[in-house]
Specification:
This protein is α+β, with helices and mostly antiparallel strands. Helix content is about 20%, strand content about 35%. It folds into two domains: about 150 residues, 3-Layer(aba) Sandwich (Aminopeptidase), CATH 3.40.630; about 130 residues, 3-Layer(aba) Sandwich (Aminopeptidase). It has six helices and 15 strands. The strands form two sheets. Strands 1, 2, 3, 4, 5, 6, 9 and 15 form an eight-stranded mixed sheet that branches. A seven-stranded mixed sheet has the order 8-10-11-12-13-7-14, sandwiched between helices. This is GNAT family N-acetyltransferase. It comes from Bacillus salacetis.
Length: about 290
Amino acid sequence: MIGYKFVKGYRGNDILRESFNQLAYDTFGISFEKWYKLGFWTDKYEPYSYIDGDKVIANVSVNQIDLVIDGEHRKAIQIGTVMTHPDHRGKGLSAELMKKVMEDYQGADIAYLFANKTVLEYYPRFGFSPVGEHQPLLKLEAVRGKELPLKKLDGCLQEDIDFIYDLAQRRKPVSTKFSAAGNAELLMFYCTYAFPDDIYYCPEKEAVILMKVEGETMHLFDVICSKEIDIEELAAGLAPAEVKEVLFHFTVESTSDRLISVPFKGEEVMFVITAEGLVLPEIFKHPITSQA
């Protein structure tokens, strides 16, 4: 673009990274600086940006991620942090950056993103199609299973951060139907930024659990474990007495009559482009802790 310079791979440049973080904060209310300083911003996450001088004025980020779909590992890219400074909107900057990203990652099995409902007409221009997600919902019985003791972890405490990251690098996918793999660094963004007060360790199951209780509903955001685990049994053992249902923010495989799927009603819609022959499951929930 005339007058602007295209840059990528600049996370080590303090001036550009600060400008990127400022634009992200002004646009979305988030900053990646803590994530960077903790060492979790790696080559897997790469902003494609236009700069004006030393200011980032437009960006489309790529997060390289593996998805497990019907038991097979698939190479994927997740597009996020799409933003343009208000003074530079309407110039086609995001569209040019999207084109660069799609050209660079033509070999990916799947490209996808999450778009808010104000831009649902934008991404089909690049070949993306909307996909409906479904959340697993577990109805709890009056008689519960064995209560599982928990240890509270702190997403701001370095000792706990190291413990979670070590386990995350060795984790088993929570589902072979649809889940993410090799996403420990992205998970740590959620542990240190989004859910630092909602992390627990279950010694009996050797699992780190991200969860939160709201009224009669327990939200289960993620279960990090290095071995296979019965998620339904775990959820029943974690739920306090007042909880009547567990809402999972990831795909769960179960044949239980108590586990149903409900249409996901979030603020964002998933858009995808898949390689020829790749078909997504009819019912799945993209894990929230792998959403870039």
